[in-house]
Amino acid sequence: MSTPEQVQPEQSLAVTVDDMPVDQLEPGVQVRTLPGMPGIRTWVIDLEPGAEWPELDVHDGYGEAYFIVHGEIIEGSTTYGPGTYIAFGPATSHRPRSETGARVFGFNYDA
Questions:
Q1: Residue 24's domain is classified under what CATH number?
Q2: How far apart are CA 69 and CA 81, in angstroms?
Q3: For residues 92 and 63, what is the distance between their CA atoms, to the nearest angstrom?
Q4: Strand 40-47 to strand 57-59: parallel, antiparallel, or no bridges (unpaired)?
Q5: Domain span at residue 99?
Q6: pLDDT tens for each residue of the chain, 111 residues long
Q7: How far apart are CA 74 and CA 95, in angstroms?
Q8: Domain of life of the organism in this record (predicted)?
Q9: What is this structure's pTM?
Q10: Is residue 74 part of a domain?
Q11: 102 forms bridges with which residues in the sheet?
Q12: What's the domain count of the chain?
């Protein structure tokens, strides 16, 4: 995922998430990349009911964190609901999925 626009010093930028371009990774998995700061990739991911991230998401040299806006995300054997914040440090991996459908807001950061 690449950041479409960088927010510069002394600048503010507002976007409507649903107006951002959609990258359909596979059926049921949509990513919207949001403007961000250098070293941080910010995004919103929508998973349709029954969808799973296409492959193991390996974090070599960067971390990731996300907040579940609505729906439920399953990481391993644990189900997390709306309002949950999940953080992964560098050298971790995961493969999120959802039985209910979900929207998450998150970011990757350089380690």
A1: 2.60.120.10
A2: 8
A3: 8
A4: unpaired
A5: 17-109
A6: 444 577 888 888 899 999 999 999 999 999 999 998 888 999 999 999 999 999 999 999 899 999 999 999 999 999 999 999 999 999 999 999 999 999 999 999 997
A7: 9
A8: Bacteria
A9: 0.89
A10: yes
A11: 47, 71
A12: 1
